[in-house]
Each structure stands twice: as C-alpha cells, then as structure tokens.
Design a protein that fits this description.
The protein is α+β, with helices and mostly antiparallel strands. It is 15% helix and 55% strand. It is rod-shaped. The strands form 4 sheets. Strands 10, 11, 12, 14 and 15 form a 5-stranded antiparallel β-sheet that branches. A 4-stranded antiparallel β-sheet has the order 4-3-6-7, with no helix packed on it. Strands 13-9-8-16 form a 4-stranded mixed β-sheet, with no helix packed on it.
C-alpha cells in the first residue's frame, strides 16, 4: 500500500475532550449564575440586608480632675426579618495618632428584627494615665480626639460583618482654679458676731471659659475655723483670666484669742481656704476643687459710703 493509500488519522478524542471542556465550563458558569440569581431573589423575597450604623451623639456625663466619662451613642438599623446579635464592640480613642484608651465590650446585645436601636458605649479616660504617658499634654489644655468603633454583627445569609465607625472632637484636661483670699471687709463688727464679706480672687488656669455657678468652702483664720461660706452670685471667668467674687460670712472674733488683736491692728492674718466650685464649661458642668493653705490676708473696715479704705492696712 502506498503512502497515499494510508488511512488518514483523525484525533477525535482530543476534539471531543475540547468540546466537553467548553460545554462543561459553560454549564458550570450557568449553574453559578443560576445559584447567585436564586440567592438574590431569596434575599429580596425574605428581606435580608446588611445592617447600618452611625454615631449620633457623644456625651460627657462626668468630667473632673481625675477622669472623663464618655458615652458614645450608636444608632444601629436592622432591615432583616430576624434579630441579629451584636457580638463584640471594639473601641479606640486616640489623639494625634496616639492611643489614649482602647478596649472590647463582648456580647453587647441584640438588635430587633426590622428595628433600630441606640446602643450606648461607655468609655473612660483617666487623666493621670494620659499625662504620665504623654508629657506634652498639660493640665488645662484642650486636646483633639478620634473615637474609632468596630461593631461585629452576625447576619443570616451574609455571616459575620464588621461595621466600622469614627467620630472626632475635642476634650479638655481640666485644671483646678487658683484662689486667694484678697481681703476681708467688715459689714458689722462685734466680739460676739461679725458679719463680713470675703473678697476672693479666682484665676482660671484653663484654655476654656468657666461659668461660675456656685462656690462652697470652709475658711480658717489663724488656724481657727470661722465656718463655711457660699457664693452669693454667679460670675464668668474667661480662659486664663481672673475674676473676683464676694462671699458673705458670719463669725465670732472672740474665738481667735490673741490673733484677734493682730487683725484689728491690720496686720496680716494667716488663712486656709478649701472647697469646691461648680462651673459650666463648653464641655459640660464640672465640679472643681479649690484650696489655698498658708495664705495671708487683712481685715478692712467698710466705709460708710460703701468704698474701701486702703489706708486701713497701714499701722
């Protein structure tokens, strides 16, 4: 048989394999598309969807020299026909990229089906921890902050999802005001009972205004307590500013013994003042301590026309 008479070889197996692969690939793609389409139709039919969350408010319910309590309000909306568990809440507070505090709140509750709920996340900043870590954060200053919150939820169809949130703002590092008993003015004088007005100097060492609402304190003259006093009226003390307030008080001079004669002669009288001021600030109400030990003040008689006689200080 000549070469021209040899039967032609056809690679039918290879062609069939190629056809099978092409048909198989197309079939699998169709199956995937079908499953995805069915899944989307099921989601639409039964109403499953991803929950949403937003930071609606930040509160400072308590702030003093030691700490700041912060409450973050997060509104979570659940579009699904079943409740979804809020598995974990991760939080971080930072300032200029530096961590101030972080933590985890496990098993944070459940969001009702087709509902929305405001979840309150309590956080606390301890000022001593912050100042010991970052020396450039000074008392009386205002620092920027960024709060980062990650909500971990478990949603049917979607599985576990993380909802990241952020909020920025400013928070103070408060400092107690400096006080000084500038002088004591007599309204009426007797050995049994003396009515006087304490002329108190208050210096605001903070970078924010203080709206002074009330002041309560105990005062000692020559190591003898003359009792407690309260502020008669409110005042505003500008940031880094000074204000004077008058506080009425009644005491018994005869309790002072020999120190009484020094006061009558106009000589300096040692005093101690301790108490608190209640103030309004741009960040909320605060109760700040005031204290002054080892100070010296003088008694002044009030002139009949209501003025002060500065010459009374001299012997």
């Amino acid at each position: 048989m000549s070469s021209s008479d040899k039967p032609e070889k056809v690679d039918r197996g290879t062609k069939e394999e190629k056809d099978d692969k092409e048909e198989g690939g197309g079939f699998m793609d169709k199956v995937k598309d079908f499953i995805q389409d069915i899944g989307e139709k099921i989601e639409d039919a039964i109403g499953f969807g991803k929950p949403t969350a937003d930071v609606t408010a930040i509160h400072l319910p308590c702030i003093n020299l030691d700490k700041a309590d912060i409450v973050v309000d997060v509104l979570i909306k659940n579009p699904n026909p079943v409740p979804i568990p809020l598995i974990d809440i991760n939080y971080l507070i930072e300032s200029d990229g530096r961590k101030l505090v972080s933590g985890l709140i496990p098993d944070a509750g459940t969001i009702h089906a087709h509902g929305e709920e405001t979840v309150k996340i309590p956080l606390t900043l301890i000022y001593d921890d912050i100042k010991s870590t970052y020396n450039d954060i000074e008392p009386g200053s205002i620092i920027p902050y960024r709060i980062k919150v990650d909500l971990l939820v478990d949603v049917p169809v979607f599985g576990r999802l993380t909802l990241p949130l952020e909020k920025t703002g400013e928070i103070p590092v408060p400092y107690k005001p400096d006080v000084d008993l500038d002088k004591i003015k007599f309204e009426s004088f007797s050995f049994e009972e003396t009515v006087a007005v304490l002329h108190v100097k208050i210096e605001n060492l903070n970078d924010f205004d203080l709206g002074l609402n009330s002041l309560d304190c105990e005062i000692w003259l020559s190591d003898v307590s003359i009792g407690c006093a309260e502020l008669g009226k409110s005042a505003t003390i500008a940031k880094k500013g000074i204000s004077y307030v008058d506080i009425p008080i009644t005491f018994r001079p005869k309790d002072f013994g020999s120190a009484l004669w020094d006061m009558i002669r106009g000589k300096g009288t040692g005093y101690t003042l301790k108490g608190n001021v209640h103030v309004d600030t741009p960040f909320g109400a605060m109760k700040l301590p005031i204290s002054k030990e080892g100070g010296t003040t003088k008694l002044k008689k009030k002139k009949e026309d209501g003025g002060d006689d500065d010459d009374d200080d001299e012997d």
